[in-house]
Amino acid sequence: MKLTRHIIILLLVIAGIYSCTERIDIPLDDSYVRLVVDGAITTDTGVQTVILSSTSSYYYNQLTPRVSGAQVSISDGTQTFALREVEAGKYCTDANVYGVPGRTYTLNIKLGSPIGGTTDYSAVSTLYPVVSLDSISLLFHPEWSEKGIWEVKCYVQEPPSVDFYRFLVLRNNVMLTDSIDEWFVTDDKFFNGNYTNGATVAYLQQGSAREGLNTGDTVTVEVNSIGKGYAKFLWEAQAEIRGSNPLFSGPPANVKGNISNGAVGYFAAYSTTRSYALTPAFK
Asked: Alpha helices, DSSP H only, in the chain?
């Protein structure tokens, strides 16, 4: 009797192992394709760019398909800038175009063939002013890691209005924060209307081939004054990229942009200011 019971337990264990490794195929709906928009107009005089692509299958292991043959324009209600397609899906203004603080800009897109059941898309974004940075500084902390860490600080008189900012960092005119998950996006809750006497906006890992600094290197901080909607879009996008916490929490909601008719992405208008510092001698 005891032997029989052991055999039954063994068979149940084996059955459980096989049931845990059974292949489960989940069909995914690839039929719903949406337009993806990535565009902006800034106060920098130069080429303003809008990139159009489309969503693709979950198993598509290449860059998302670009959308060609569209008519794209940006207008402030008085002046309209027509964009031309310079390469597949990349639409650009002339090199002398710039945005003006206080104006509201509308992006209009007319596709050559419909995506998501429509050919017409639009988005609206207001360009807010930004105060000029007084200066930036670099503070080296040799004790913070094996080779040390640079703390990047900003000094500026922040206005009393409710504002949202994006901070980017360059070394010798090469962008270090070149992906959305590396951007520092914040509101002014902790320094609204005050002088930011050395607000930390970035940390650079010394010894890193990418971030490490040498004496005399030029570090530039670029500050963009962005709208609340764009800040929220970036925060949600960063949360999706970085993953859920805790590990087994529910899936995040779709990141909501400002493009009409169910398109994905954002059209932003923002102002820009910059300041730089030379890397001091350090040990």
From this structure: 2-20, 228-242
